[in-house]
Amino acid sequence: MNRKLMLLLLLMTFCFFLLFGCYSSQATEPTENTMVISIENHAHFSIYQFEIDTAFTGNGMAYADGSRIKKGDIMSMVFDNHQDFTLKGNMLFDFFLISENNERIYLGQQNLTLKPNQAYHFEVHGTDIQDVELVRVR
Q1: Concatenated DSSP letters for 95-130?
Q2: Rg of the Cα atoms in the chain
Q3: Of 10, 29, 80, 133, which alpha carbon lies 20 to 30 A from 117's?
Q4: What is the pTM of this model?
Q5: Mean pLDDT (whole number) for 64-77
Q6: Does 9 fall in a domain?
Q7: Is residue 20 predicted with pLDDT exceeding 50?
Q8: Is residue 80 classed as helix, strand or coil in its secondary structure?
Q9: Domain span at residue 74?
Q10: Distance (Å, rounded) from C-alpha 138 to C-alpha 124?
Q11: pLDDT band at 8 (very low <50, low <70, confident <90, very high)
Q12: Measured distance CA(110)–CA(93) in Å, rounded
């Protein structure tokens, strides 16, 4: 009986983190060994994922349950010094979003300075996919 109860509690805890642990109203802060790129959704259409590609990596940011990224939600990607690439110099980053039709939309390219304890914050604006815009805030 205790085994079933423990399994049930474990499953409930997992579901709680799956449903509520993905939401972020704040950008992740960088550390002495990381650089963070955060994207805040201000678009008036459904977005399900953000992707950031470099010459060395290509990663996406999405909710584990596949739900849409709501207006005002912030998704952050952390780059670790030496683990992802060396945080020194400059690098080109290509930004994309994935729409509700699974369409990959190019948002543009940014040349960013790589250094530890650095944070970049972007916002996505637009009323539909045709006028979507990536804006660097800081």
Answers
A1: EEEEETT--EEEEEEEEEEE-TTEEEEEEEEESSGG
A2: 17
A3: 133
A4: 0.79
A5: 95
A6: no
A7: no
A8: strand
A9: 24-136
A10: 13
A11: low
A12: 5
The three-class DSSP label of residue 91 is: strand
Task: Determine the Cα–Cα distance for residues 20 and 64; give it in Å rounded to an integer.
Answer: 10
Q: Rounded distance, CA 122 to CA 127, Å?
A: 17
Please give the structure tokens belonging to residue 100. 């509700």
Mark residue 65 as left, alpha or beta (left: phi above 0; alpha: psi -120 to 50; beta: remaining). alpha
* Domain contains 12: no
Q: How far is CA 88 from the centre of its chain?
A: 22
- For the cut 70, the answer to whether the pLDDT of residue 9 exceeds it is no
CATH code of residue 65: 2.60.40.2890
Q: How many angstroms separate the first and last alpha carbons of the chain?
A: 54
User: Over the range 89-110, which residues count as b (16 or more CB within 10 Å of their CB) and which as e?
Assistant: eebebebbbbbeeeeebebeeb
Tell me how far apart the alpha carbons of residues 120 and 35 are, in angstroms, rounded to a whole number: 8
